[in-house]
Amino acid sequence: MGYIPMGIGYAALAIKAGLSPIQTVSFSVLVYAGAGEIIAVTMLASNATIIAIILTNFVVNLRYMVMNTCVYNKATKTSLLLNVLSAHLVTDESFALFSLMEESSIWFYIGLALISWLSWIFGAIIGVLVLDLLPIVVTNSFNISLYALFVAILVPSIKENKKIGLLVAITAIINVVLQFVIGNWSLIVSTLVGALIGMEIIDDDYLLNDNDGVEC
Amino acid sequence: MLIDQIYIMILGCAVVTFIPRLLPAVLMGKIKFNRKVEKFLDLIPYTALAALIVPGVLTVDNQLWYIGLIGAVVAAVLSWKKVPLGAIVILTVIVLISVYSVVPLL
């Protein structure tokens, strides 16, 4: 599972941002959103306000509403209780895996999603336990792991659709420029502005019909 | 004071992340997004990742900005060559540890 090294990478950043070991692990248990968590601790490290961090998390994690809509449209043998209990476990990876599988039982999904959640928590626990003991160069090297994941998620889409690459470049530039003007709010603003620009430059067909082959 | 703020951040993020996850679970398929909204929400992960990577990746090491750049390039090349995600993460970390071992010589 790639989630364990990523969890370690997240823990490295969280500790660096000033979270205690308990806070670092509870964040992974309670929020369970790799990108959201890393944004939060990165913003915290650069003295962002708590309100800015929470709002940014809301925007970045809003996509789980779409993903869970797909998951519960597909899942069979469900009940309200099972849905509510498993709602917390959706991530980009668990959603993508389940959507692409023939298996549609909610129990199968819960098994898959639960293992991912536990691996993510386990990674954070290993991170807070061992990072103190490791030389600083190793800790710094783990800092790259989530960025490596982000790059690795983006590259296949860019390879497939060059306009996604263009959108990524535009958004990155907007973010860099805005940082000088509005500081830490630039992440949320450039994400939203970038998506608005994307409405114009990305073809509907690419996103809506060819999204991992998933129809919801 | 700072400690209290971190707990507020954890709880706040937990709540705003859980609500969008919970809604479809309770409504069980009664939500239908119009295509424009769906497209906008679909685009957010791409733009959020872009904004996350740049310029944050350059601060992986506060002293040596190019460390993060090397890592990003390694991850991009591996991903282009269709290496699995978990392997990309591990290999990139290993490459950076190796880079650090030669940094004093540069």
How many helices of chain B? The count is 4
Q: Work out the largest interface and the residue count of each chain.
A: A-B, 99 and 75 residues
Instruction: Let me know the number of strands of chain B.
Output: 0
Q: How many structural domains can be distinguished in the coordinates of chain A? A: 2
Distance between the termini of chain B: 43 Å
Strand content of chain B: under 5%
> Compute the gyration radius of chain A: what is it?
18 Å
Number of helices of chain A: 12
Structural class of chain B: mainly alpha
Order of SSEs of chain B: HHHH
Average pLDDT level of chain B: 88
The percentage of residues in β strands of chain A lies in under 5%
| Helix/strand/pairing category of chain A | mainly alpha
Instruction: Assign an overall shape of chain B.
Output: extended
Order of helices and strands of chain A: HHHHHHHHHHHH
Question: Oligomerization state of this entry?
Answer: heterodimer
Main pleated sheet of chain A:
none
Low-confidence segments of chain A, ≥5 residues, pLDDT <50? none
Helix content of chain A: over 70%
* Sheet having the most strands of chain B: none
Annotation keywords:
heterodimer; A: 216 residues; 12 helices; B: 106 residues; mainly alpha; 0% strand
